[in-house]
Every structure is written in structure tokens, then in C-alpha cells.
Amino acid sequence: MTREAHLKFCKICTHQKKDLARGIVCGLSDRIADFEDKCDSHSIDQRLVTKVASKAKENILEVKTASQGKRFANYLIDQIFLIGCALFVGVGIGLLLLYVFPDYMYMLDEENKVIEYLFGFVIAMFYYSFFEGFTGRSLGKFFTRTKVVTEEGTRPDFKTIFVRSLCRHIPFNALSFLGSDTTGWHDKFSGTRVVEIE
Predict the structure, then answer these.
(1) pLDDT (0 to 100) of residue 58
(2) List of the chain residues with pLDDT < 70
(3) Nearest 10 degrees: CA dihedral of 44, 49, 51, 54?
């Protein structure tokens, strides 16, 4: 067996011991593993199994995590589609008022920042929750070949996506990407990551 194959056993064994010069060695023999098919004294430590599995998932996400450039491209593309959606819905509301409730047409002439923000909020919540909830990808992510996953690397459920969409509206959320980390606040608070698709 190779050293790599031995370490698959040794990393989750209760008898393992860490040596600065040699790495993981057997605590019983104080030697590097040299068994052929199996170790007779191998004893599985469930805590180590969980730790190794968790570390492996972290490494997979680290390798596949989308770059800041792709995240920024996602943002720009999604903003274009959001503006299109808002325009489409706005025209629909205007036509509805014009033909069904003409007495309320004056509402479109009044400028109300709260109504405008709520309108944008509802459109964005629907857009991200719908696309990321059903496909794991917004339209921007389709173009950049990225998708949303949980911190464990699995597909997020609708509740997680809803929380993620809600957290996008935290003030200054976009500034959370200014560091070297490609994870924003809406990723951290919802327990999600954006990864590249091979």
C-alpha cells in the first residue's frame, strides 16, 4: 500500500499519533504504517471520521469557490435582469391602472422613495428566490457557470435561499466583498457559498 492509502486508515484511528518530522504515526508501534491490506490494531474514532469528512468538504469548496470577478459579473448581469423585470412589472401595473382603475393613475406621477424601495425589494426577493430556489442559479450564474450550494456542498432548500435573498438587502452588503474573501454577508448568514461548475 502507498502512504496515501495508509493515511486513509491512520487519520481516523484512535491509535494515531502526530510526529513533527514524520507526520501521522502509529501510537502503539511509534512507526509509520507499513501494513499491506489492513491494520490488525485499527480502531475507528467517530470524532476523527467527522473531522476528516468536514475538512474534505471544506477543501472541495475552497477549490471550487467562485472568484471575485465571477461574483461581480453575477451581480452586474443580475442587476440588468432585475431592471428588466422591474420595467416589465411596472408597465404591467401601469396598464392595469390605466384600463381597470383609471382614477388611480395619479399614483404613478407621485415620487415615493418608500414605495420604490418596497417595489425593488419584492422584485429582487422574487427573482432570487425563484431562480436560486428552483435551479440553484440566478440568471447571472447561468452565464458565469456558477451555482449556490450549502457549506456542506449540497443543494440548498427554499428556506435557506429565502434567507439568502433576504440578507442581500442588508445595508452595505456589497461592501462585504471588498476584502480578499469571496464570501459576502448574504453567503455567511445563510450558510451558503457560490461555487464554479465544471
Answers:
(1) 62
(2) 56-63, 180-181
(3) 170
* CB contact at 8 A, 93 and 154: no
Structure confidence at residue 143 (pLDDT): 94
Would you say the pTM of this structure is higher than 0.85?
Answer: no
Question: Same domain for 85 and 163?
Answer: yes
Cell numbers standing for residue 90: 411596472
Q: Are 84 and 91 in contact (CB under 8 A)?
A: no
Find where cell 476584502 sits: 179
Q: What is the CA radius of gyration of the chain?
A: 26
118 and 40 both lie in a single domain: no
Q: Which three cell numbers stand for residue 69?
A: 470577478
Structural domain of 24: 3-63
d(CA 26, CA 8): 13
First to last CA, the chain: 31
Q: Is 151 in the same domain as 178?
A: yes
C-alpha cell at 163: 434567507
**What does the angle CA 143 – CA 194 – CA 198 come to, to the nearest 5 degrees?**
60
Per DSSP bridges, beta strands 146-150 and 192-196 are: antiparallel
User: Is the domain of 124 the same as that of 171?
Assistant: yes
Phi, psi of 148 (to 5 degrees): -95, 135
* Grid cell 464570501 in the structure block, residue: 183
- Res 105: pLDDT: 75
Joined together, the cell numbers standing for residue 16 give 494515531
